[in-house]
Specification:
The structure is a homodimer. Chain A is an alpha/beta fold. The first copy, chain A, has 13 helices and 11 strands. An 11-stranded mixed beta sheet of chain A has the order 3-2-1-4-11-10-5-6-9-7-8, with helices on both faces. Chains A and B meet through helix 8, helix 9, helix 10 and helix 11 of A and helix 8, helix 9, helix 10 and helix 11 of B.
């Protein structure tokens, strides 16, 4: 039933994340409402199956529930999950993609375990040594792409160069930019700045044969400023940058709410200005950027933020559907091949 | 003249930063207006001296100008500046502190050179291996302290532990917090997350004899959330986090301006709501957090952001004056001694 009629089939680990299974299940319900051409294979506990049924997520609605007797916890080591996680909702959700039953998998669970199991079941794409987590990111002009966001905590120069290639392909596929400006995140724009790893990667991107549109270094404040389309960094720095941005966006919203709650006149003006303030809040809402791809794998795996609510989870599902429909992996493979043959 | 009567004397490198000497000189003028108990020794070129004179910054106003024939440029290697920078405005500005003529120095110039020359002239405090750049940072409840913000691009676990001690002392001195909550910046809050360096530092802070109020790991979004008072990280990650926050704050302001400029009704409401919007913009304004300390040195050296305008530079001068008046180095020494004897 699920594969016919132009449907996009998503496999979902409903047990991953801080608010599981509630947020994933409510997220699936919301995504289905937003996009009736989606179909789902959910993986989770019996309690989760009951919740899904209560929420009307039944086969008649295009949702199949598969029982998983185990869960990968947030503090589990990836190596442990690899050895012992075969019956977990995460493992089974990923295997729905390696089996060909679903076109993409989404989980909000343990990132390290998700990457490790995905590498095992989906394999790396030809030419990719280290898959990376990549996501779009708001800028003043629209969006950019940043990677790695946490899969590779310590990176060497070759890793960064390969991330640049993957990020370039991802940006072409998702942002529809013909020649993305690729930059390395650094602590200064001058050539002498930064670690040896960053300097060596810059040298290779400038002098080597990647053929990318490498524009040099970018500093943290250049990201939101829209100075580059693809921002390349190690997984530690990228993860901190993304989460710091989220945190700052949240206090912007909080400061605004406080200012317009500071007295009767302020509250009246806040009420009148609500449509405009909502527009600002919406642009700052990190939930609408939720959904990062584990890029460089032979199947589409999307990571939802561990703290996601239903709106955020639904956004990650929409990202997964869009990546599947745009054949992002075909794009990445093509570009990696093209760059190899240069 | 400068040392009498309870004045605080600041030495300023007016040639450092992208908008030098204009921004530093206008910043000095603004700082003097805000705080008439300040006195200044300015170091710069003859053109800068002329500009200062034009702006009325004369001896009668408590400003002495010292001519420097050289400038440390932004892309100069620290080692080059150390060998060849003896006649630079930066070197001479720092020596005004090592000479005892000024209580603190402020520069917006090349950070690496500033740290290298400061280490040579001011020496490290007893017990400090690697001085770090530390600054306050806005949170939803007030402020926190973060370090290192760019002095030490690659750090080992011992460096991070020592930053924690310096940050603790800095927070006690500047935020007036009796037992600051110290946290390590990481990519997850679980024990298994992060690099080996971060894990080893966490082990030492938990099990060792620092006696700090160590609360564990914090993620990027926990900074603005106010989850810790002292946030410890390496100079690469800290620099990116600070600049990313600045960039996000700027697009918050831009989004708000765009929303309230989107039509006649929006503009009218924006005009009426201006006092409240200004309050939000002010809280987000990175210029008001400008002024980071090169902490762990035997004299107070404050770094102003390279892109500072006059308002931002004046804030860095106010930070330097406050650090001098609160004897922050006495606090750091005392705490390092106390922690050694534990």
């Amino acid at each position: 039933m699920l594969n016919g009629g132009g449907f996009t089939v998503l496999s979902v680990d409903v047990m991953g994340g801080d608010k599981a299974p509630e947020s994933p299940i409510h997220g699936v319900k919301l995504a289905l409402k937003n996009d009736p051409s989606l179909r789902f294979i959910l993986h989770g506990s019996e309690e989760a199956a009951e919740l899904a049924a209560q929420e009307g997520l039944t086969e008649a609605k295009g949702v199949i529930f598969c029982h998983a007797s185990d869960v990968v916890t947030g503090d589990e080591k990836p190596s442990y999950a690899l050895r012992n996680g075969r019956k977990s909702s995460m493992w089974l959700a990923i295997s729905s993609v390696s089996d060909g039953r679903a076109q993409a998998v989404v989980s909000g669970g343990n990132t390290g375990a998700y990457m490790a199991i995905s590498r095992l079941l989906l394999k790396s794409l030809p030419g990719v040594d280290r898959p990376a987590i990549v996501s779009t990111f708001p800028t003043q002009y629209g969006a950019c792409v940043m990677l790695d966001l946490g899969a590779n905590i310590v990176c060497d120069a070759d890793n960064l160069v390969q991330f640049a290639v993957i990020g370039d392909a991802f940006a072409r596929a998702t942002l529809k930019i013909p020649s993305p400006r690729v930059a390395l995140l650094n602590v200064g724009s001058e050539e002498v700045k930064g670690s040896d790893v960053v300097k060596a990667a810059a040298h290779e991107l400038r002098e080597g044969k990647t053929g990318l549109n490498f524009i040099g270094y970018i500093e943290g404040d250049g990201i939101a400023d829209g100075q580059a389309d693809v921002i390349v960094t190690d997984g530690f720095t990228g993860n901190v940058a993304v989460k710091t941005t989220e945190g700052t966006g949240k206090i912007c919203i909080r400061y605004t709410r406080e200012a317009f709650g500071s007295g009767p006149i302020a509250m009246l003006l806040g009420l009148l200005a609500k449509p405009y303030l909502s527009r600002v809040f919406k642009r700052l809402d990190p939930r609408l950027y939720n959904g990062a791809m584990l890029a460089g794998l032979g199947g589409i795996a999307v990571k939802s933020h561990g703290g996601s609510d239903a709106v955020a989870f639904a956004n990650a599902l929409a990202v997964a559907a869009s990546l599947a429909r745009n054949d992002v992996n075909g794009n990445i493979i093509g570009l990696l091949r093209g760059q190899e043959s240069r």
